[in-house]
Amino acid sequence: MKKNYLASCGNWFLDRFPLTKLWNDHMAQYYAPKNFNFWYFFGSLALLVLVNQLVTGILLTMNYKPDAGLAFDSVEYIMREVPWGWLVRYMHSTGASAFFLVVYLHMFRGLIYGSFKQPRELVWIFGMLLFVALMAEAFMGYLLPWGQMSYWGAQVIISLFSAIPVIGDDLSLWVRGDYVISDATLNRFFAFHVISIPLILIMLVFLHIVALHEVGSNNPDGIEIKASKDPWGHPVDGIPFHPYYTVKDIVGVAVFIFFFATVLFYMPEMGGYFLEHANFIPADPLATPE
């Protein structure tokens, strides 16, 4: 009786939401080239790191205070007092660096295999917009710890906007929300980092994947697998993404997690490259970092 009830509920849901169709169209019956190599791991890894950033970011906002007088101390509170807060913070900060590493490798693969060529121009354009949004997200998030490097880094970058002819000064003022880096700037960057840009990132990821699956993935040999199909409409030179590539992606994810965990537990600051030493000092508008 219970199984019948669950089956009925499942059928009711599937009649109203195309979950099975989505799975088939984008995984089980999505055909990819047979000759994917090592370089094709990094798209899936980028999606994994994005999920990590979203989840850890949500957890951090539960204890972070976007206030110039409290921001630095709230980060210290997360690190020292919140159960497992140090782990969540390091997962987020290390994940930010890992995100760029994975995305750069993904972009490099796109360049060497011509992913920007016809008919994948939109895939490339959405990818470039993703990269721009990712840089903005990282820049906004860099101010939030309110350390010395955070403060002065934001000061330098925002000052660059003032060099833009005609609109430079007004643009700098709009970005800061004040005439100097202040509490208004911190609140503005927090809103952008936590709400606005993540929504843009999620939308662009969706568009990037939909555009990719519409035209199909490229491959090292440059063969367009959709050009030759069998009587059932399946590409002759392709194989279903699931289970063939999901299994390979799981192996790639396992290797990535091993290296990610090694950095996370043994060198999360990466000698001052991931988390600069000066950023463990509260922001001081009167003293530049040494």
Distance between the termini: 71 Å
The side-by-side strand order for the widest beta sheet comes to 1-2
Unreliable runs? none
What's the architecture in CATH terms? Up-down Bundle
How many distinct folded domains? Answer: 1
| Assembly type | single chain
Indicate the radius of gyration in whole angstroms. Answer: 23 Å
Question: Largest beta sheet, briefly?
Answer: 2 strands, antiparallel
* Averaged pLDDT: 93
Based on secondary structure, the structural category is: mainly alpha
The fourth-level CATH homologous superfamily is Cytochrome Bc1 Complex, Chain C
CATH fold annotation: Cytochrome Bc1 Complex, Chain C
Instruction: Using the alpha-carbon principal axes, give the shape.
Output: globular
> Which percent band covers the strand fraction?
under 5%
Order of secondary-structure elements = HHEHHHHHHHEH
Q: Report helical residue fraction.
A: 55-70%
Per CATH, the class reads: Mainly Alpha
Number of helices: 10
By DSSP, the count of extended strands is 2
Question: What would your notes on this structure say?
Answer:
- Helices cover 65% and strands 2% of the residues.
- With 290 residues, it is mainly α.
- The protein has one domain (40-220, 242-280): Cytochrome Bc1 Complex, Chain C.
- The protein has a two-stranded antiparallel ribbon.
- Helix 3 runs antiparallel to helix 5, helix 4 (71-80) crosses helix 5 and helix 6 packs antiparallel against helix 9 (183-215).
- The longest helix is centred in the last third of the chain and has 33 residues, at 183-215.
- It is globular and about 75 Å long.
